[in-house]
């Protein structure tokens, strides 16, 4: 279920880590939000087998032995690169080459299956496939938080399409306050 972070929440608690922000994004963007910064400390689910496994469970993705942290890291880097620069899709296309979409039909119509030979790439490829679909559907609305010190990403589903922040409280207000402070200091 979208936004259900039950296993991750439990695994984070077990480590004494803070909760994961912005866990409500679609899969292709949620891949990016597996790392975050809280109170100046960087956290990354893909640094640990238990946290990566919990994320795969929550997202209903296939796992493998060993836990496929490296393919997920590579996929995450490739997606972040495309969001930073939409023309920079070579790495993403190279990773998509790990799999194919296999077509079939059922009583209602077309059915698509992921066809990924290497079990370690199945979860990462599913994330990439989801991102490719998001990019097709809303190319201008996949963004990084405008706070340069924040690493979170989101799909802007607001009516105006002008969302800038992962969250107004976490980043928007903080940056506005700093700008106000800078302006106040600059005024003699
Ligand atoms: Zn942010």
From TrEMBL:
Domain Zinc finger CGNR, residue spans: 141-183
Name listed for the protein in its UniProt record: Putative RNA-binding Zn ribbon-like protein
Highest taxon listed in the record's lineage: Bacteria
Any Pfam family matching the protein: zf-CGNR
InterPro entries: ABATE, ABATE_dom_sf, Znf_CGNR
